[in-house]
Design brief:
Blueprint: H1 3-18, H2 24-35, E1 43-47, H3 53-59, E2 64-69, H4 72-85, E3 90-94, H5 97-100, E4 106-112, H6 121-131, E5 132-142, H7 150-163, H8 174-184, E6 186-193, E7 200-206
Parallel strand pairs: 1-2, 1-4, 2-3, 4-5
Antiparallel strand pairs: 5-7, 6-7
Helix pairs in contact: 1-4
């Protein structure tokens, strides 16, 4: 994500944080499937955590969570939520996704509603693979617009290039994303497409040593 994207999310952080979840059933299913792979000792890294709601939810089922986002305004909102909930096993850091992967090694890495916004997803995927411990889990929820309305996205991207008001959205298919994950070395454990927003939810695993 470039600086235009960072500016966008800083500007819209407050409205994003109070926006209701469109499909609560799908959201809760994603939470449940993610928790299936968590233990009370799991160390978790979330990339692009937004206002921190998902990270806070998972922190109740994990040992420790580090959640990062490119937007300082998002992180400030997330930190206020931590204070309100008095959670002690979670930390929010303002950092881009690639740099965040250098923090350490994790049992699980999350990238939810993030990958399609990044210019460097190939590079990020390599860094995520290094960051996930052997036998560890990578969970992604990704909008694969090539399977849906690519021409509409191309229109929005053209507007984005001219006015720099909205983030650039990268268009690729679910099968392409799966191929990239397996090429990176991950094994797909489960995948599921949300019926409402059609995002592709994938749980994959790094091979054990």
């Amino acid at each position: 994500m470039n600086t235009d994207g960072q500016t966008f999310w800083n500007k819209h952080a407050k409205s994003y944080a109070v926006k209701p979840i469109k499909d609560m059933h799908a959201y809760e299913k994603k939470l449940e499937r993610t928790r299936h792979y968590l233990t009370s000792k799991s160390c978790v890294l979330e990339l692009g955590c937004g206002s921190g709601m998902t990270a806070l939810s998972h922190s109740e089922h994990a040992g420790y969570v580090i959640a990062t986002d490119y937007s300082q305004q998002m992180i400030e909102i997330a930190r206020r939520r931590v204070t309100e909930k008095q959670q002690t096993n979670i930390r929010f850091i303002q950092q881009d996704a690639v740099s965040a992967c250098s923090i350490g090694s994790f049992d699980m890495v999350l990238a939810l509603n993030l990958i399609h916004l990044l210019d460097n997803r190939g590079n990020l995927l390599e860094e995520i693979y290094k960051t996930v411990k052997p036998g560890g889990i990578f969970v992604s929820s990704t909008h694969c617009f090539a399977d849906r309305t690519p021409y509409l996205i191309y229109f929005f991207n053209a507007i984005s290039k001219i006015f720099r008001k909205i983030p650039y959205i990268h268009v690729f298919s679910a099968s392409q994303w799966v191929d990239e994950l397996t090429t990176a070395g991950f094994k797909i454990l489960e995948s599921w497409r949300s019926p409402s927003d059609k995002s592709m939810f994938i749980v994959c695993q790094k091979a054990s040593m």
